[in-house]
Amino acid sequence: MKKTKLFFAGLIIALSTLTFAQCTSYTPTEKDLPITTLTELQIAFPKATYVELTETATYAVKNDKGKVIGTVLLSSPYSDEVKGFNGPTPLQIALDEKGKIIEVRLLDNNETPSFIKRITNAGFLNSWNGLTVEEALNKEVDAVSGATYSSNGIKNSLKARLSEVPQRH
Fold it and tell me: What are the structural domain ranges in the chain?
């Protein structure tokens, strides 16, 4: 009986170690990403067929030939301390292959839906489209009236994330 218990305890430890080793060297696929689905990502990148984690909160967007056609940046963990009205305002920022912003998307959050609708209707999330990272960092964007805390949270989340992107020279 004692040998059986030791065997199962050893087996559990071995499986736990194996699972941990597999997880630490795992390259995520589209279904595993904390970002929008590949179908939604194809709105910004119509030729996208694959995304690959390249560094913390940074994903290379690739076409069917494996060529990088853009980058997706997640604001978290860089902006986790930035708050809107009801907490963090996590973003997904899509950059084309030249490093220009093509889309800023607000991810799941606890902001009041009517405030987010105001922000969306005002085109606030499009304020940085077409800008390089450096231009976006220097652009002053006014908060949306009636959704000031939420829009300032979004703006500051974007700036916190973009300030961590290496500048191109």
Answer: 30-162
